[in-house]
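Progress report, Aim 2. The chain analyzed during this reporting quarter is listed below.
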Amino acid sequence: MVTLAGVTSLTAPGVADEIPMLDSIAENERAAMQIAAYYHADSTFESRQLTASYDRDVVVGKGDTLMALMVKNGVAPREAHDAIGAMSKVFKPRYLKPGQEIVLTLQPSGAPGAADRLVSMTLVESVEREYVVRRDGDAFGAEKVDHPLKTEIAAAEGRIDVSLFMAGAEAGVPPGILADLIQIYSFDVDFQRDIRNGDGFTVMYERFVDETGTTVRTGNILRASMTLSGRERALYRFETANGTIDYFDEDGKSARRSLMRTPINGARLSSGYGNRRHPILGYTKLHTGTDFAAPRGTPIYAAGSGRIEYAGRKGGYGLYVRIRHNGTYQTAYAHMSGIARGVRKGTRVQQGQVIGYVGSTGRSTGNHLHYEVMRNGKFINSRRMHLPSGKQLKDEELETFLVARETADVQYAMLIRKDVEFASTAEPLPGCEGPDSAAC
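Predicted C-alpha cells for the chain:
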C-alpha cells in the first residue's frame, strides 16, 4: 500500500502537471502547421510569380536599332537575333522609325544574373497595323496584324465670337480640320479682316475610328461653309473627270486661285503694305509686303505653284525664298527660321507646299513672316489683288457635281439635325426607314 500509495502519490501529481504542457505542445504543433502552410503557399506564390510573364514598353528613339533596344531591355542577344530574324519575314527592321512603340513580353529566368526569356515582341507601326513575334518552342514565328479603321462622317457648326480657332474648338472640331478649313478658304477670305463677331462656319469631314470607337485620325473635309457678314460661302470636295480633286462653290467654280492671300495658318496680321516708320532703321519707307506674326517654327506655304528663284540668306531679309509662278507673278517669303528640306533654286513647288518656317532672321524685331507679291517685277498689295478663280465645271461634269452637292447638303443636314422639318417629312430621308429611324 505504501509502495502503491507512493507510486500513486508520485504519479498523480505528475500527470496533473503534464496536462497543460500537452495542451501547449498541441497548440504549438497547430501553429507550426499553419506557419508551414503559410510559407508553402507563399513559396508557391513566389514560384508562380517567377514564371509569370510581364510587359515592357519601349519607344524607339532617333538612331535606335531593334537589336540594341531589345538587349538594353533585358533580352538575351541570341534570342534577340532569332526574334529579329523571324520579324524580318514580315517587317524589315531598317524601316524602324522614331516614336514607334515596341512591347516586349518577358518571363523571368529564375537564375541569378541570367537574361529573362522572350515570350513575344509587338511592334506597333501605326494605329492600323502591328507586327507580332511569338515564341513557338525554341523558335519564333511572326505575323502582320491589321486593325482596320472604320470611316465615319462627322459634322459641326459654330458661331465666331472671338476667332475661328476658338469657335472650332468649342464645337469639338479637331485642330487639323480647322487648319484645312482655313487653307481651302485662304484663296478668297482674309482671316484677319473679313471675319466679324457673329459670323459662323459649318464643316462636314471624315474621321477614322478603331475597334473601341476612339477617333485616331481625321480625313478630308467633304463640305464646308463660312458665313461672313450675312453671306454664306459653301464649298464642296469634288473629283473631276480627269481625277483632279478640288473644292468648288455652289455653282461649280473652283475655290482655288492662282495665289493664296494668306500663305500661313493661324497668324496675326501685324503690318500691312505701304509707307511706315521702320521699327529698326527709324525712318519712313515703303513696306513692300505684309507681315504675319506667328510663333517660331510655324509652317509657311507656297502661295502658288511655281519654280524657286532664290533660297538662302539675303541681307536684311534673313532666310529668304522667292518663287516665280508665271510670266507675271512672283512671291517672296522672308525672316524664316529655316527653309524646308528640298527647297532650293530651280526646284518646282506646288501651291500649299511647306517651303519654310517662321522666324526672326535678318532685320527683324520678332518672329513673323514678311510676305511680298510682285506683278511684272513691281511690288503690289497682296491684300487687294484680284485674281481669277480656277476651273469652272461644265456640261455633264457640272450635272454630276450638282447631284453630289445636293447629296452632301442632305447628309450634312441629317448629321447636324439642323432642319426640324426633317422629322415631319412625308418621305423619309435615305437611311431613316425602319427601327433606327428615331435616330434621324
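Residues 149-257+388-433 form a domain with the Nuclear Transport Factor 2; Chain: A, fold (CATH 3.10.450.350). Confidence is low (pLDDT under 50) at residues 1-16, 43-50, 272-276, 419-440. These observations will guide the mutagenesis work planned for the next reporting period.
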